[in-house]
Amino acid sequence: xxxxxxxxxxxxxxxxxxxxxxxxxxxxxxxxxxxxxxxxxxxxxxxxxxxxxxxxxxxxxxxxxxxxxxxxxxxxxxxxxxxxxxxxxxxxxxxxxxxxxxxxxxxxxxxxxxxxxxxxxxxxxxxxxxxxxxxxxxxxxxxxxxxxxxxxxxxxxxxxxxxxxxxxxxxxxxxxxxxxxxxxxxxxxxxxxxxxxxxxxxxxxxxxxxxxxxxxxxxxxxxxxxxxxxxxxxxxxxxxxxxxxxxxxxxxxxxxxxxxxxxxxxxxxxxxxxxxxxxxxxxxxxxxxxxxxxxxxxxxxxxxxxxxxxxxxxxxxxxxxxxxxxxxxxxxxxxxxxxxxxxxxxxx
Length: 348
What we know:
Elements: E1 3-8, E2 13-18, E3 66-69, E4 97-103, H1 117-135, E5 142-149, E6 161-167, H2 172-188, H3 192-203, E7 207-211, E8 214-217, E9 228-232, H4 244-265, E10 271-276, E11 291-295, E12 298-300, E13 303-304, H5 309-314, E14 317-319, H6 323-332, H7 338-347
Parallel strand pairs: 2-14
Antiparallel strand pairs: 1-2, 3-4, 4-6, 5-6, 5-10, 7-8, 8-9, 9-11, 10-11, 12-13
């Protein structure tokens, strides 16, 4: 049984780990789980090749990764700049930026876990190009890339895709992380993530996947059950700094993680995936170490991790699971996707 506080160095906050609570009786609402049949093409899907989007634009008959400007952006170059001044000491500012959608593949029924290895590499190369292009614009201070997967996190369209927000501000989590890691760099001339990786490899119990220059682990300070970090060993400010060989390693580890997620309950595994990359605001971000964070919302197959009093009211996460146990569960499943195992058996 794990029952203690653990320090989250990147967020500078305590996480309460009370793993014995995961077995407490539950009589509340659960979410629907399990795999559903999804066709490889849907005529009404705005992301499928050849279909018309809400803006009236028609998608090309794309065959690989496809990127386009979001038709319903939350930030954009046309956002109003002449704003009514709010009352008192309140402040507002224009929501300027560029919002894009990245379709992983033309098929509607595939997820990141079900792509071929070369398709995952192509996706990472696209992310690299987008970061370089958008981050190189003088008005862009931050390039946030993220994927929301699963209805339980509010995704209504299963077509495999992620989003990019290139903004005239730095999102708060990244701004805090940049400040924390810069202080650590100034004191130690070593990135904080290098220390995290060293500690995780020294312990070993929370490592999920490793290949050459990249590795994945459930961090000691995980807030969510199955929370997972994927990171290059070499300090890089962004994915764009990885060499071709490092991209291959990173893609392999990332792919293995999402496959193990799906294999855990033999169903599409929901998550929020965010790429933590250095801001592009022209400031010094020494010490920032690029990595991807997965925040899965389920702690059991149909049971959400609800944010309640400690998280919302107190500001400290309460984890009902031990990171060591969750990592062991992920390591115990096959690194070959369960659907491919079934196909292999069928074609014997």
